[in-house]
Every structure is written in structure tokens, then in C-alpha cells.
Please model this.
Amino acid sequence: MEIAVSEDRRLLSKIAASDKAALRELYRRYQPRLERFVGRMTADRDGVADIVNEVFMVVWQKAGSFRGQSSPSTWILGIAYNKALKWASKNRRLEALDANQTSDARAESLVERDEMEQLLKLLSAEQRAVIELTYYCGYTYREIGEILDCPENTVKTRMFHARRLLRQHLPEDSR
Model:
């Protein structure tokens, strides 16, 4: 982990000096993670690649302003979070799972993983970000607070409400 952080810091230093190869390497390292994260936040599959590209445009332009107070991944995911929120509000494509859809129809149309993705769409973008960063990326609440630029207790509150909402929509036998 520490090796990856120091490598990312090195790449950011090179990017600050306009090294395009370093940007390509950082993109290769982060693109899959960012696509998953942004995809879960926005529910706009068509916009994911555009948002990820915007994130790396900011990285290219602002790498020199990275102060190293957090890990590079925290900084990059913070940029992605802000870009995804702006995209979602601008395009108004946050979708909720149709509450009228019967569980039989869902069972026929969704496999377990897809069903979880549909459930995540019930959450606000902020709640989805907390779930994604905790369970899929492995960040601590403190690190998530840095990424989302909010207090750790706000992260905990968002997690509490997200879990409660998800629990309400799980089938009885899954609770």
C-alpha cells in the first residue's frame, strides 16, 4: 500500500511537470476504480467515461497544487466525487428504483449483483459515495470524510441512513 502511495505521489510530481506518460500511467491505475465509483454515484452509464476524463483533466491541470496532506487516491476520488455530483445535478439523471415494480419482476430481470446496484440507486449520491468508498474501495470513515470534504460524523450518519434505507428494501429473507 505504501509503495503504491509513493508511486502515485511520484506520478503526480511528474504530471505537474507536464509529463504525459505519467498521466497515462496514473490513468491506467485509477480508471477502473473511478468508473465503478462514478457509475454507482450517477446512475448515468453514458456519462461515466466523460466524468472520468474530466477528473483526469483536473489532475493534469492541478497536479502541482497537490499538497500531499492526504493520499493521492483520496485527492483523486475527491475530485471524482465533486465531478459526479455536478454531472448528476446538471443532467438530472439520478434514477430511483421504480417502487411499483413487483419483487417477482425484479427477481426475473435482475441477478443478485444487479439488484444491489438497483438498490443503491435508492440512495442519495452522498450515501452511495459512502457505501462505495467503504465497501468497494476499503476507505475508513476518516478518509471518506477527507474525500467528501465533510466531518467523519457526517460520514457515519450517511452510512447509518443508507443502511437503514437498504434494509427496508431488502426481501424479508435477506434481512
